[in-house]
Amino acid sequence: MMKDYFLALIGGQLFALDKGCVAGIGIHNESRGKLLEENGKKFLPLPDGNQAILCDLQQVMPGSDSHRSKQSHYLIITVQGRFVALGMSGKGRLFMADEGELRPLPPAFTGIARELVFGVWVNCNDLILVMNASALLKLPDGITTETGADSVKALKRGVEETRP
Amino acid sequence: MTDEGRQAETRTYLLPLVLDDAGGNVFCLLSQNQVVEILGQRPIQRIPFSPPFLKGVINYSDQLLPVINLDELCNQRAVPRNDGYRQLIVVRTGAIDPTSGKPLKAVLISRTRVHMAKFSSQVLATSFIEQEAPASLKMSGVLRGFFHRQANYIALIDLQQVVLGSTFGDVAPAN
Asked: A126 with B59: CB under 8 angstroms?
């Protein structure tokens, strides 16, 4: 079945998320606001008064030091009523894909890796990892980012601003 | 020609291993039957929260294969190195995917070019002397045998547990 997904470039890798859980896009901008810090976790303040917990997936990728790429935007998603801000490069975009074409990760990948990435699409030479948003809430505390302050450019239901 | 030369020779591949606690050159011996293909560099898709020795996945002949760095698998306490690689070796592991029932392949990373060697069955039977393996190899969970031959050490490995994901748990985030 064809379904809408949001495509984000995180740490040089392509990730897909169900469009329904994307709340908006924020921009990294140290001059326009400060991150909040509570119990060692960092939060991005949102215009509506909510906060999104920062999550840096680059930190937990193998070879993260050598492949670290600049994260210009935040992808803000809602998971079980909570906001999560994922650092990403670029604004991302919407795309449609067939769920029936999803392939599972090889069995060598277990635990959180398997829970977080529940499938892979092969698109010519690119592999798109499909992320299970609810698994983000189970991630260890250590992946909250330590990057500078940010501000949210757009926090709208849907992702109109990211449409190509 | 010697008796050794007249015998049918078996082609093998020797993958150099970098072990922190080994006293000499160590090679992982792969039989011709194990090796499917040797590839050059290609993009490896990294998977978050996978152990450092699992470098990611590649799409090979319409199959997703895990990419394994044996050096990091055997030196798990060492700081992971990311200084690139030269070749990717697609290997049969002997394991069967419990979900699909298909044989599982894996891809091994090689920092240098893989060596090829031919051994007769007599050489394989007589000139490989079993040795005590370095602790790093013993603790890796993949060692099947460790031998000394001339100036080199040869390790035989079994990747079934690794490709089935049954030996290693979750990975804590890097701090």
From this structure: no
Maximum Cα interatomic distance, chain A, rounded to a whole number of Å: 45
A66 in Cβ contact with A19 (< 8 Å):
no
Task: Give whole-number Cα distances, B71 to B2, B13, B15, B93, B111, in Å.
Answer: 37, 16, 10, 17, 9
Asked if A91 contacts A25 with a C-beta cutoff of 8 angstroms, the reply is: yes
Determine the Cα–Cα distance for residues B28 and B63; give it in Å rounded to an integer. Answer: 25
pLDDT at A124: 85
Complex ipTM, two decimals?
0.86
By a Cβ cutoff of 8 Å, what residues of chain A touch chain B? 11-13, 57, 59-67, 103-114, 116-117, 120, 122, 125, 127, 129, 139-140, 142-143
Residue in the block written with tokens 């490995």 = B157
In the structure encoding, which two tokens stand for residue B99, read together? 């979900």
Token pair in block for residue A70:
């600049």
Could you say which of B56, B82, B165 has the minimum Cβ distance to residue A107? B165
**pTM of structure:** 0.84
